[in-house]
Amino acid sequence: MKIYQSDYKKIMNYMVEQRWQGYEFVACPFWNGPISKEELFMFDNHLEAKEFCEAYSTDSDRFGYLPTRSVYRSMSEALEDDSIIVEKGGLIDLLSMINKYHEELEERSIKENNDLEQLKQKEEVMNVDVFDYLRKQMLYAGLGDVPVNELQKKLEQGNSEFQINHKRKFGTVEATARLNFKQSEKNVENYFFNSFDVLFKKEGEKETMQQNFRISFGDGFRFDEAYKLMNGRSINKTFVMTDRLDKNIRQEVNATAYMDFKNVDKYGNFEIVKVYGYDLEKKLAEYPIKGFENESVKNKIVTDLKNGEIASVIIKTAKGDLEMRLSANAQFDKLNLFDKNMKPLSKTAIKEIENKETVKQGTAKSQSKKQETGKSQDKKPDGNKPGEGTSKVIMKPDQGPDKNSSLRVG
After folding, report:
1. Tell me, what's the pLDDT at 399?
2. Which of 109, 115, 274, 353 is the most exposed place for a label (fewest CB within 10 A)?
């Protein structure tokens, strides 16, 4: 747990402020590089902090927690006694500093039982019950329904690696999640849930589709999201991006992800691409959707599409109301349109719907703008060129640096 020397007072004051607001514990990444104030997560009690750390710790990203009071007291004491400060290369090692502070408290026989009890809790994070730790990770991966007795049995066998197969129905299709666990090289009693494979056969197809999804802080997908991606759906969510040149630099970004079925990496996984600037509301506004002016109706449609669901809508056409289904298509910066039986609509049917002269659309300015949109879409090859209004970054399953940006996911 290291911070920049220049951030020392800012973080100390922040800890004091958070403590007075009732936040008793602080959780953060325990990696070699420095962390910022934005990477400090505050909690009311140690159980919430412990749960957070269990959920987001992997064999490459460790999270730990400390009593807020101990952090700011040791930092404050170090301002008076610089022998406590552990500094190297412009970085302050807070964890080592707190340990020194603890040692000095013991040497001076200062028995503040509450503080001492809280200080000891910093060592508990990676000593949590392995079973509960793995169950928590599985829950966050959307695999909380995996039978607990299977996990317990595998742990008791003590193998260095093991897998658990779990089946789930998505409509009429049965998909298998193959969970991959590995023993810690540093402590044989610890195991990590590193990734899961998703396998299923699409309706009418003989070949089994397979993709690996790794468990990683800030860029993972749940089992249901993975299944949707493999079925060509787009998923919108917040990712934590890591700079490819300095893994300690991270930031949250909102993006829409899709699976590129034309590009496969060296491990046989389809590339997952993140798109920025894919505006669902703008795309939906291009169609005369009945009730779209109603905020609750609009929010329901937008939320469904962001989650990779199929949205049911009523489209107003020259021939009357038409029941349709929509799905987001971030790859080509558009929406996919289907009839109520999920049969893709023909180009002719789509053009008829896009022709805003067939229905009343409000002002002449609005009509003109939408007619121009329709013309520009007619000129584009249908479905073979990504939209020009978006930017993209490829998510690498092997965690290698991206080709398209200095920031990558995870």
Report:
1. 40
2. 109
Q: What tokens appear for 400 in the block?
A: 């290698």
Mark which of 101, 127, 153 sits at the end of a domain: 127
Domain count for the chain: 2
Q: Is 229 exposed, middle or buried (0-12, 13-18, 19+ CB in 10 A)?
A: buried
pLDDT of residue 108: 57
**Could you tell me the residue range of the domain that residue 41 belongs to?**
2-127
Residue 223 included in any domain:
no
Query: Does residue 384 fall inside a structural domain?
Result: no
pLDDT at 395: 53
Kindly state whether residue 175 falls inside one of the protein's structural domains: no
Low-confidence ranges of the chain (pLDDT < 50): 109-116, 119-128, 357-388, 396-410
DSSP string, 233-296: --EEEEEEEEESS-TT-EEEEEEEEEEEEEEE-TTSPEEEEEEE---HHHHHTTS-BTTTTSHH
User: Does 389 fall in a domain?
Assistant: no
Crossing angle for the helix pair 130-140 and 148-157, nearest 10 degrees?
130
Name which of 161, 202, 195, 203 is nearest 177 in CA terms. 195
